[in-house]
Design brief:
Distance between the termini: 14 Å
Strand content: under 5%
Helix content: over 70%
Radius of gyration: 19 Å
Shape: globular
CATH architecture: Up-down Bundle
CATH class: Mainly Alpha
Number of helices: 9
Structural class: mainly alpha
Order of helices and strands: HHHHHHHHH
Length: 262
């Protein structure tokens, strides 16, 4: 708890604009790394990508187990919804790798295609972060775990259906525009959703930090998760092809966001 006390102290009013300045400097540094990786044509391999995907999925499953324990102790519906959401998102992205592996056999042109599992899984997680906030705010609390679990499953299933249907209805698979400044402009959708989630979790943290409660610390963790995922899609927007530098920076940001929750 001492480390978390230092974290919350970082946001005290007497700090003034220091937190905003530090976050702005970190954002500028991250963007500089993304542009440098893009212009130097740094690239990785499908094997490295698989390791990151599997590692991220394992972190998702570990967080889900911790979140279920939290729900049993505190009836925190945000934790319950996100437990299902992280597992589903991680599973979709990992299974999507095998589809990508088949696509890569078609030749180098496949590198410009964006994995559908990436888009569906990432957008689904962003939607569930916002849905969890909406459920916590607008739906009455029930002290019956069976009803809470059923409600969380309904929210997750509804979000998964709407997200999947939206991408299935898309006229074509997204293809990176190599010559454009933003090679993957559609990353604005999940990135914007994560940015909204970061804003609302930060507001929630600000409202509850006066009590220095465990709930406020959990909200701060979710704020960082949403913020890192926003950075993930910012990096992905500059990716010209799969496995280039910005693509792996996006993957690293995503995996780091999962690790924060443990």
């Amino acid at each position: 708890m001492g480390d978390w006390a230092n974290v919350t102290g970082f946001f005290r009013k007497d700090r003034g604009n220091l937190p905003a300045i530090i976050f702005s400097l970190l954002a500028a540094l991250f963007l500089s790394c993304v542009l440098y990786a893009r212009n130097t044509h740094v690239s990785g391999s499908p094997t490295t990508y698989l390791y990151l995907e599997v590692g991220g999925s394992l972190l998702c499953f570990c967080y889900a187990a911790n979140a279920l324990v939290r729900f049993r102790g505190t009836h925190d519906r945000i934790a319950l919804i996100l437990a299902f959401g992280f597992v589903l998102s991680g599973t979709i992205e990992t299974l999507g790798y095998f589809g990508l592996n088949s696509l890569l056999r078609t030749g180098p042109v496949a590198l410009s295609h964006v994995p559908m599992g990436w888009m569906v899984g990432r957008t689904l997680l962003a939607v569930l972060l916002l849905a969890a906030l909406a459920v916590e705010r607008f739906m009455p609390t029930s002290r019956q775990p069976s009803r809470e679990t059923a409600g969380a499953l309904f929210v997750v299933a509804g979000a998964a259906y709407v997200t999947s249907a939206a991408f299935i209805a898309a006229p074509a698979t997204p293809v990176a525009q190599v010559g454009a400044f933003f090679s993957r402009p559609w990353e604005v959708l999940p990135g914007g959703l994560f940015a909204f989630a970061a804003y609302f979790f930060y507001r929630r943290f600000q409202l509850e930090k006066k009590n220095e409660s465990e709930a406020s610390l959990y909200d701060y963790s979710l704020f960082l998760v949403a913020l890192l995922n926003t950075a993930c899609h910012l990096a992905a927007a500059f990716s010209r092809h799969l496995f280039d530098g910005p693509f792996f920076l996006a993957e690293l940001s995503k995996v780091a966001s999962y690790g924060i929750m443990l």
